[in-house]
Amino acid sequence: MLTQQRRDFLRLMAAGFSATSLSGWFPLLANQQEAKSPKSCILLWMPGGPSQLDTFDPKPDHENGGEFKAIQTSVPGIQIGEHLPQVAQMAEHLAIIRSMKTKEGDHGRASYHLRTGYLPAGTIQYPTLGALLGNEFKHNRAGIPNYVSILSNNFLNPAAFGSGFLGPQRSPLLVGGNNPGPGGDDAPEYGAPLEVSNVRLRETVTESQAKSRMELLKFVENQFVKDRPGLPTESHLTAYDQAVQMMNSSAMSAFDLSEEAPEIRDAYGKNRFGQGCLLARRLVERGVPFVEVALGGPNGENQIGWDTHQDNFSAVQALCETLDPAWAMLMKDLQDRGLLESTTIVWMGEFGRTPTINPQTGRDHFPNAWSTVLAGGGIQGGQVYGATNDAGMEVAENPVAVNQLIATVMGAMGIDHTNQNMSAIGRPIRLAEPEVEPIAELLA
Q1: Which of 146, 150, 221, 293 is 20 to 30 A away from residue 274, measured at CA?
Q2: Percentages helix, strand, coil for the chain, rounded to the nearest 5?
Q3: In the chain, what is the straight-line distance between the N-terminal and C-terminal CA atoms, in Å?
Q4: Predicted TM-score of the model (pTM)
């Protein structure tokens, strides 16, 4: 189907516009496309691998469907799991992919694959999606690193959360993850505060003292750099520069969730994941291009709670009760503020779960046929793409590989997925693997 811009182009050609006339039209088209392209991406990361049959690909008429019912959504004909009722009412914004097909069934390797678009390779450390997208937005509009990771737990594979060959300057700013920051939120009912460690001066240090110390540090380090040039030294300086920039940035007020009305905080959920989604909205509002929020356990604990080998149904229900209000409110809040069209949302884990139910009432690792969801800016919502068979064991229509998913996210954000970065060994690496195109049906 032709886009409006392509139709306009053909109309101009039919009208006999001269090359001179068109030369003025092409920059206008480019500017219009840039204005329409999303400026931020929020990844809702589900470590452990969520069960597709109990969330976005229910099979209520098959024995593999399990205990949960399927419910109608705001889009006629689309059903999802019963424990996502609020998300169901926002289905017009969702593009549900039910045909993910991958091969990695190990948590660490699969996390790396989904988060970088590449399989682990010993010679090259690939950057994670947040580092890739953050690197595409060269200008830091927020005074905060372009990649913020909230509640991440990287112990299964630290490299899956790193900046790889892009270097430490593209590393994530970690918030409330493996090492939660200090307190400060005066509303403990929402869970431990989501703050950045060590970005405030000690009470005993004045502004002038801090400035003098930084000037002395810079003098000493300049001499050190002259004697020992190279990437490690540059990375060290970059880290300090980013820290000082954040300390002096008014955008750090984004982390003060007490500025929000109690009814807003309550709507996201009185738990760390819900408050993390609220923080994500506040960060994209200030121009941060990539924010991820992980839901590892009920209430946002740093676990891999979606790894439901046992008691799958009680675990998934508890996780969905945290996920549902937070995700639905995130979309509503972004929409109310005019930000949903400029924010692409990705919901995914590293793989799915087996359709068959094991003797422990659990579901095991299953990369063969599972689901992800895209929403928001650049995405054509209100649809299901792909399908699995009646038993959920095989992809029946439109299999989607990881590189296609990555290319589609890039396409939604107006980024050319064939763009290249130079690796540490001098090899050009594309954002998404060659010979793949974004899934056109999913793009707005």
Answers
A1: 146
A2: 40, 15, 45
A3: 11
A4: 0.85
